[in-house]
Amino acid sequence: MSTVRQQLRQQKQLDVDRLMNWLGRSSIHLVLIIFACCCLIPLLLIVSASFTDETTLTRRGYSLIPQQWSTQAYDLIFRNPEVILRAYSVTMFTTFAGTLVAVGLMSMLAYVLSRPEFILRKPLSFFVFFTMLFNGGIVPYYILMTQYLHVQDTIFALLLPYFVVAFYVLILRTYFATLPSELIDAARVDGAGEFRIFVSIAVPLAKPALATIALFTALNYWNDWTTPLYFIRDSHLYPLQYLLYIIQSNVDAMQLQSAVGNISVGTMPAETARMAMAVLATGPAAVIFLFFQRYLVRGVTLGAFK
Amino acid sequence: MKSTISRRSFFKSVGAAAAAGGFSLSGLPNLIGSGQLSRRAAADLPRLVYIFPGAPQPDVKKVQDALSAYIADRIGATIELRAIDWGAFDKQISLINASAEKYDLAFTAPWVNNYYTNISQEYLAPIGDRLTSLAPKYFGSLTPAMWAAATVGGKIFGGINQQIFVKPFGPYIRTDVLEAIGLKDDFNKLTTYETLEPIMAAVKKYIATGKDKTLTHVTYNLSPIMTQENWGYDPQDFMLVVKSTDTAAQVKIWSQTDEYRKAAELVRRWYQAGYAPTDVKLWSEQDNAWKAGQYAIRVSDIVKPGGNVEILARWGQAVTSKAIAEPLLTTGGVTATLTGVSAVSANTDLAVKYLELVNTDPVFYNMLCKGIEGVHWDWADKAKGVIKPGSGKTNFGDTGYNPNTDWMYGNVFNSYYADASQVGAWAETAKLNKDARPSPVLGFTFDRKSVETEIASISAAQKEFADPLGTGIVDVTDGLAKLNKALKAAGIEKIRDEMQKQIDVWKAKKA
Predict the structure, then answer these.
(1) What is the DSSP letter of A69?
(2) Pick the CATH number of A80-302 from 3.20.20.100, 3.40.50.300, 1.10.3720.10, 3.60.15.10
(3) 0.95 exceeded by the pTM?
(4) What is the complex's ipTM, to 2 decimals?
């Protein structure tokens, strides 16, 4: 009898535990769901607005579901799709080519700095480190790029700035330094030259760190809109993010002009067209990200442990 | 020099030789021959680099070549048009200036590529003396009072682009609504904002009848009534004003004037009467709502000749307007559009000659504004100076060259009309400018260095207490008391005294 009661009590206890457990988990889920909605709703609003009829949008404002379905905005953009396609290709190119070259350059520099035998290791490391603390500022940067390197309005202006990022070099150097020196000695005994050691021994072992840096660099290139803001005038070289920025800020500038008064600059691009542009510019990238997210996250955490 | 163009001229001469040698592609040899000549001549001439904000135009190279050919034998230079997208212009031009990158001319104004910063940083060359000697016709086309507005420290640093300098504010009303309520005569006889009230009331009644389905409000934004010019004041920075008729140029605090109270009371009354949406957040949507036809009256906007046509083209609303504010020539109005000459330019003389040309030669100016005749535009009525889109296009936007910013380049009174209904607007505008009363502080600019800290707190107080008064959501007496208290605490009196001091010095120097 008592055992039955005990069993019952245990059962009840289990139920309570399960309930508490369930409550705890669902409350966490609830918080996360609300947070996710906060992130998603603005995006959905843009998508919905891009499919809304222009006058309906001005009259009734934004809503999550288009009140008056219309693909007019997309028709307008696809009449002249080169702008977006070109921006895509510029961004793709800088991201891939830039990341490739940047990781190559940074890993070589970092590897050299990690080798205790290298005579200039200390001064060179300090030189790299120093640029992290102090830099010349924007005007000397501009002068260097335009009056010495003459890269303004070329694709190199978009590529150069991220080729070597001091902080990433230091991360890589630290990683290379953890490789056992015996490995390198062994390779040398086997007759490998310095470059061979770097390519065949150090780089394969440093893959996790390289993957992380490659990811960061790729994101830098993908998101970069300040470099073109300084150096690119030719609209054929606008990367994607900058194109979006320009579209938005052109509208702001027009509003500024009407605030100044007595000046009028044509008609602004229609609200819906701007939204459609944003959807087209970010949409495919978002889809690609969904597919690659797994690898990206792994890339980030890989660097954390050996 | 020769070696750099040799490759091109090699191809050219091969082409020419081939053509001469029997290829009878009619007219081609001629084209190649003349192109080669003018290009070689052009290569030897100094090139003026002109930087301005604007969306890059597809056909800009064509127009640039045509412009260069036009000015090559007139002032002995060629020109390069360097348009920078609006969103990037301020950033790029400031870097170009700071790095002493070579260019010759640039658009400058207090609101973009800041004229006064450029002067204090010595990015712009003083051109006053050169204007009188090298650009006499242009210099003479503006009154001394206007040049005084662009003068800083006794020197002129920018060529003024003539456009409407004055701001004759007044109400705009949708013509169909005005006809429906039958108060056309009353509207045309308006002299003060108070007399607009019966018309507002009539529109409200008209909305209640429900005859116009889209119309939901009488007006959308009442705050423009608070604009200083509406009440005969020349606005200086931050809540400070000088009465337009006060030759002693006494600086006053705007919120402490009788006119400010009157304006605020008017706004409050109209707000309470329900003439504007009660949700003031909607007010910033006034342009979209105007386009959608949701309200009938814009209470206070710049009423300029040809303005109604512009509104029709831009917003699709046929409107009637009436200026109420007295046209006042202020520093800000004149300096709103300037062309500066770079301090590092190697061709300052040529740049000033260019200013003479662009401001006095309609052919050149319109080529810059509208493109090439027969390609980007054609005459619709040459006698009246009216043009239409070229190459059989129906829209100027499709022709390949339509910056649509005539005011940026030079004297807009020389520009061709894009619409027959605008004919005569330039002459009227020029008259408005000329007849306008010059502000007693025309040409004065405030040096804010010594009061920077106060300025920051002033704008905070303004946002917190002045903006609600401009919307009518607070009681006037109470709101005014709070505003004046906050402004005083923020140190407005110090700024006022400093400005008065500077004005007195400036006046003494002028006299």
Answers:
(1) B
(2) 1.10.3720.10
(3) no
(4) 0.73
